[in-house]
TrEMBL record:
The protein's name: Nitrate ABC transporter substrate-binding protein
Alphabetic keyword roster: Signal
Biological processes per GO annotation: thiamine biosynthetic process
Signal peptide: 1-19
Record-linked Pfam families: NMT1
Gene3D superfamilies: Periplasmic binding protein-like II
SsuA/THI5-like domain ranges (all copies): 34-233
Coiled-coil region list: none
InterPro entries: NMT1/THI5, SsuA/THI5
TM stretches of this protein: none
């Protein structure tokens, strides 16, 4: 074989391999940030491509509903929030299924002024700035489990100024965002109460897809889940510079400081890699864990007791220890 013919053969083989990669679009639930880092990592370092997927990440945002696009068949996977979204889909008869839990802990927090509360129950002595979604979900659990009251709730307009000005108040937030924002705008470091550490046991940042995708393209689902899990290990414990560059390209307002803070908080609190994930890998979900959260939501009056909640998820693609060798 001549060198020219060999070159043509190699080129054709490479082109064929590239053509064989399946196009996949993954929609996130907000603007690009460190909390999406594992997915960007798997694109940046070729992990998805190595499994035969050509993945495009489609950022969410205030005017973007990526779940609706998935329901319409425009994207393949979506970044869900907590298990309550999955339960709601079952209640509404929408065939959306969670296939992995990127976060073992929901990053929802309550912020208080330094020293104002010695323990979580002390928050019952404060007014609490909460949005409507939070009031209808985790605050109903706080009322049921700890005796918080509806009267404590103040409407949160996503402006931290009222909280910053009032030491006798608390404010909802996201572990890797609002604490830094308050520190910069208010000039003090708030105390942070992670609801997951108080028993609010929802998984979060779920990977979800349509039931039909699982039935007809299980190999694509498996590759995407495995690639995402490996991406999270590499992002948290390896060189994440290329992924962070992609994040900043998709979200020009994102800063290195905010990314570093997000990673630090996720690692310190065990948001991604803790609990059962230490044994069976990032992405882990279990029947017992989901039932525990479901029972708490039933007791709080958030979901009906007769909901067939097991339709909301599958364990087919997780709990296999994928990527654990990448943890350094």
């Amino acid at each position: 074989m001549t060198k020219f013919a060999l070159a043509l053969l190699i080129g054709a083989t490479a082109a064929g391999a590239a053509a064989a990669n399946t196009p996949v679009t993954f929609g996130t639930n907000w603007l690009a940030q460190a909390e999406h880092g594992g997915f960007y990592q798997a694109v940046a370092d070729g992990t998805y491509a190595a499994c035969g997927l050509d993945v495009t990440i489609q950022p969410g945002g205030p005017q973007v509903n990526n779940r609706a696009l998935m329901l319409a068949g425009k994207i393949d996977f979506n970044m869900g929030g907590s298990l309550l979204e999955q339960f709601s889909a079952v209640q509404e008869g929408i065939p959306v299924v969670a296939v992995a839990a990127s976060f073992q802990k929901e990053p929802q927090v309550i912020l208080t002024h330094p020293g104002k509360a010695k323990n979580f129950e002390d928050l019952k002595n404060l007014k609490l700035y909460l949005g409507d979604a939070g009031y209808a979900s985790y605050y109903q659990w706080m009322i049921n489990a700890f005796g918080f009251t509806p009267e404590q709730r103040q409407v949160y307009t996503f402006n931290p100024a009222p909280f910053i000005a009032d030491p006798e108040s608390g404010m909802q937030g996201y572990l890797s965002s609002e604490p830094l924002m308050v520190e910069k705008e208010g000039g003090f470091k708030p105390d942070v109460w992670l609801l997951a550490d108080q028993g609010y046991s929802s998984y979060s940042t779920l990977i979800e897809t349509m039931a039909d995708t699982i039935a007809t393209k299980p190999e694509v689902v498996s590759c995407f889940v495995d690639g995402s899990i490996k991406g999270w290990y590499s992002y948290l414990y390896g060189d994440n510079s290329a992924a962070n560059a992609m994040i900043k390209k998709d979200n020009p307002d994102m800063t290195d400081e905010q990314i570093a803070f997000g990673i630090e908080q996720m690692k310190a609190a065990g948001i991604v890699d803790s609990g059962e994930a230490l044994e069976t890998g990032i992405g882990t979900m279990t029947d017992a864990h989901i039932k525990d959260f479901f029972d708490k939501m039933v007791a709080a009056g958030v979901v009906p007791a007769d909901l067939e909640y097991t339709k909301a998820y599958t364990l087919e693609f997780v709990n296999k220890g994928v990527g654990m060798d990448l943890k350094k």
